[in-house]
Design a protein that fits this description.
873 residues; 12% strand; alpha/beta; transmembrane; three-stranded antiparallel sheet
């Protein structure tokens, strides 16, 4: 019988849909991505323990006290293993996919229950959807929607829809026919019969279907991690790819906790929405033993709201779970433990710049100590030599009195921001007040007060001594002294109530972004000209600390940099200023080296600094090594690279569509020839960076009389009849199965086991430790040859083909999109020794510490950044 080309027809159909309905898929992608982003923002916003408390309260409301306690402990465990963000990503995926599924499944089930023809048509479609292997749905998902969240959600919707449709249809069909007939006999409209009779009675069955939809959605979104969907799926996939037991168990336990919570909550929800279930629940409570009533009691909505507030307060004060304070990392020990005392005024720009320099100095080997002071105390302490330097002097105007008094005992290290301005501001809803002159006429509107800040601040002195007398405000207004925090709190309260308020402010300040405010003009120039923000130090500081003084003298931030730094610190929260700084430095790669360059090793920004190439990589040692190496190099050049792991098929697909910009592990012209031939019209070969590779089968050297592939024949019993392989989609595996085994007559004697590179290496390690014979798929270069004594089996018939080179492959738009990076890659080359030592350094660092391994290797290869990515003027 001739072969039916069913797969080719489906492939043609998929291609036609992609080419002709791209507008529809783009629309779906936008909607789904928008839904996911919205839900994920809500889930990721609160502090982990706060949200855990709210979820636990929901469990209390639905099931009781004991499930609530267990739910809180479960989510606290997720936070403690630092998978909270991934868990919330997964929960967002489940909720979005579940809602979309239910929106379609329930109406379809209702339609099928009321029309047998529709039911007959839908049934085989549901059978197909439910029995098709879940992985298969990812393939068209990639073609239609690319890589990432959207294909995962769409595949999840398809996979999880059948039980929702089936259970809805079943529930409605099981409603007693006599009840429906009675409703019809009383003249009830069919729609009302459905809404008032059938759906209420069918709710327990429908809710069971909803429960199954949610559970199937959770199982599928984990699988969706294979195509780049965010969340625990990606964690589990990485653990599988690298055979990382710890990562796999932690990711798995997080999935289990989510699954149990969703299962119990959706099951219990039936008791709240179904009249039958509510009556059954009431009977259950009535029968409960008196001593156990507390376990069955469930709070009312008002009590639940009080619980939310209490849990929020408790969660805000707890820090025993999920701490992510990484601590300082010394990247260049310039300071050698020298202490530096930094003072600061508790103003936003002062906090931001101070904690920035605290972090930078710690990275350079100093031991800085920071302390907050009032302005007067700060200048006094600095003049007395108790404070080394500070970064928030507003000169020549605001702090003129302090500078005049102490300048003989201080050093001005220069300005790092300017010009600034001082002003009085009012909310924009206050009409008729545009200048300080207008303010004088409206004293009753503002209850005769202007809310100020710290009494020792230069702006407050200016207000009292010059501004208020200059505009006659001292007659009808009092200047309220307090603190910056108190002023901002009062502004927030008044703004929320739309009450008039006048406050002392300055620019730049994040308040102008948060509120709509009017800066009152100063036509008389009483506040003086705009200031610059200067760094001041005690006398003699520059001589004693020339390197730090040089860094501070060259220190500059523009408005965007300063406000984003302030925002990052605001987001981190009180007491976590340095964590906010670290987050900002991560978002601004290369900034630390720019502000505090190490003598003789300053990193230069590239011409395309700020560009964000998407780099894909396979879970293979040479690709992991080179990807993390280039990530480090690009960040030093001011780029913002993103990296993500894929399998071979997904990589080439994503690269051809432009979702992946570049990858460094193209084995050509042989191993990945099929992928190159298929996608080359949308790709560009940037060039080869490593020569003389080889594909081979290897055996331990203690296995005697096996020196070539021909020697394997007749020895299947020695090796258990198998050759341990790697990922089934790789070119080497296809060559081995399709050509090499047949060429040497081994195809009937041996079976090649599919798996992954880490799994193969784990099997090799176990067998080697026991001195057991094993034959594995390997390639050169590979660190296994230095760790174990192995024999590369000769290939006299050249069945594996010619040697490959390792090429850099990219999307066809890459050279124009990233011209500087493209130029670097064209000239890039690594020797066997360089690659082997880089791989070994990463191996020594351990899983999850690839960046540390790369940094250690780079420290041992000074000048490597300039060699790989030279910056020309």
């Amino acid at each position: 019988m001739p072969r039916l080309q069913l797969g080719d027809w489906i492939n043609s159909g998929v291609n036609w849909l992609r080419d002709n309905l791209s507008w529809l898929f783009d629309f779906i992608s936008s909607v789904v991505q928008g839904m996911y982003d919205g839900v994920n923002t809500v889930l990721s916003g609160p502090e982990p323990l706060l949200l855990a408390g709210i979820l636990a309260l929901l469990a209390w409301w639905l099931r009781g006290l004991l499930p609530a306690v267990l739910a809180f402990l479960g989510f606290a465990l997720i936070d403690s293993i630092e998978l909270w963000g991934e868990a919330m990503n997964t929960l967002a995926l489940v909720l979005v996919a579940g809602v979309i599924t239910i929106v379609f499944a329930v109406p379809l089930g209702i339609w099928a229950s009321r029309n047998r023809a529709v039911s007959a048509v839908i049934r085989p479609v549901l059978d197909f959807m439910q029995t098709m292997p879940a992985f298969v749905y990812l393939i068209p998902g990639i073609f239609f929607f690319g890589l990432g969240v959207v294909p995962g959600v769409v595949a999840t919707v398809i996979f999880s829809m059948p039980p929702g449709v089936r259970m809805t249809e079943l529930g409605i069909r099981q409603v007693d026919a006599e009840l429906v007939e009675a409703a019809d006999a009383f003249g009830t409209h069919p729609r009302r019969t459905l809404l008032r009779v059938q759906l209420p009675l069918a709710l327990p069955t429908i809710m069971a279907g909803v429960n199954q939809v949610i559970m199937l959605a959770l199982s599928m979104v984990v699988i969706a991690g294979m195509v780049g969907a965010e969340g625990l799926g990606s964690t589990v996939f990485q653990a599988i790819s690298s055979v990382d037991v710890a990562m796999g168990f932690e990711g798995g336990i997080a999935v289990v906790i989510l699954a149990m919570y969703l299962d119990r909550m959706t099951s219990a929800l039936n008791q709240r929405v179904s009249p039958l279930a509510r009556r059954a629940l009431a009977k259950e409570k009535a029968k409960a033993l008196s001593g156990l009533k507390v376990l069955h009691w469930r709070p009312a909505t008002s009590v639940a709201m009080v619980g939310v507030v209490v849990l929020a307060l408790v969660a805000g004060g707890m820090s025993m779970f999920g701490g992510d304070d990484e601590g300082p990392k010394v990247s260049a020990n310039v300071g050698k433990g020298q202490s530096v005392n930094i003072g600061y005024i508790n103003w936003d720009e002062g906090v931001a710049s101070t904690f920035l320099w605290k972090e930078l100095l710690e990275q350079r080997g100093f031991k800085p100590k920071v302390q907050s002071y009032d302005v007067g105390a700060l200048y006094t302490g600095m003049a007395a030599g108790n404070i080394d330097f500070e970064t928030d002097s507003w000169l020549p105007t605001t702090h003129a009195s302090y500078w005049s008094k102490y300048k003989s005992k201080l050093e001005n290290l220069g300005s790092w921001y300017g010009p600034t301005s001082l002003e009085v501001a009012v909310p924009s809803y206050v009409k008729g007040v545009k200048t300080l002159e207008d303010l004088e006429k409206k004293s009753s509107t503002f209850k005769k007060k202007i809310v100020g800040i710290e009494p020792g601040a230069g702006e407050m002195k200016l207000m009292q001594d010059k501004v208020m007398p200059g505009y006659g405000l001292n007659k009808n207004f009092s200047l309220v002294k307090g603190s910056t925090a108190a002023m901002l709190s009062q502004l927030d309260r008044s703004y929320a109530k739309k009450e008039p308020i006048a406050v002392t402010l300055w620019s730049p300040h994040w308040a102008y972004d948060k509120y709509k405010l009017t800066k009152l003009k100063d036509p008389k120039g009483a506040f003086g000209k705009g200031d610059h923000i200067d760094s001041l130090a005690r006398k003699g500081f520059s001589k004693e600390n020339p390197q730090v003084a040089k860094w501070i003298k060259n220190f500059k931030l523009d408005e965007k940099q300063l406000t984003s730094l302030e925002s990052a610190i605001q987001d981190a929260g009180k007491g976590k200023e340095q964590q906010g700084v670290r987050a900002w430095l991560k978002q601004n790669p290369g900034m630390a080296n720019k502000l505090a360059p190490v003598p003789g090793g300053a990193d230069q920004k590239g011409k395309d600094a700020g560009a964000a190439p998407m780099i894909g990589y396979f879970p293979w040692d040479e690709d992991i090594a080179t990807t993390y190496l280039w990530k480090n190099v690009l960040e030093r050049r001011g780029y913002k690279p993103e990296i993500k792991q894929y399998d071979v098929g997904s990589m080439f697909t994503g690269m051809s569509t432009g979702q992946v910009d570049v990858e460094f592990d193209g084995w050509l012209p042989v191993a990945q020839k099929q992928y190159w031939d298929r996608y080359k019209k949308n790709l560009v070969d940037v060039g080869s960076w490593y020569d003389k590779t080889s594909l081979e089968i290897a055996v331990p050297s203690y296995v005697k009389d096996v020196k070539s592939l021909a020697d394997l024949k007749g020895k299947a019993g020695t090796f258990g009849g198998k050759i341990v392989g790697i990922e089934p989609g790789t070119g080497e595996m296809k060559l081995l199965k399709g050509k090499v085994l047949k060429e040497y007559g081994l195809d009937k004697e041996y079976k090649v086991s599919d798996g992954s590179s880490p799994a193969m290496l784990a099997e090799l390690e176990r067998s080697y430790a026991k001195k057991e014979p094993v034959a594995v798929v390997l390639w050169t270069p590979h660190w296994a040859y230095s760790k174990y004594k192995l024999t590369k089996l000769a290939d006299p018939k050249k069945a594996f083909g010619a040697s490959n080179q390792l090429h850099t492959l990219a999307n066809k738009s890459f050279p124009k999109k990233f011209p500087e990076f493209n130029g670097w890659l064209k000239k890039w080359h690594m020797t066997e020794k360089e690659l082997a030592t880089l791989e070994q350094s990463i191996q020594d660092a351990g899983k999850g510490n690839e960046e540390k391994g790369v940094q250690k290797w780079m420290d041992a290869h000074p000048g490597i950044v300039d060699k790989m990515a030279p910056v020309t003027s």
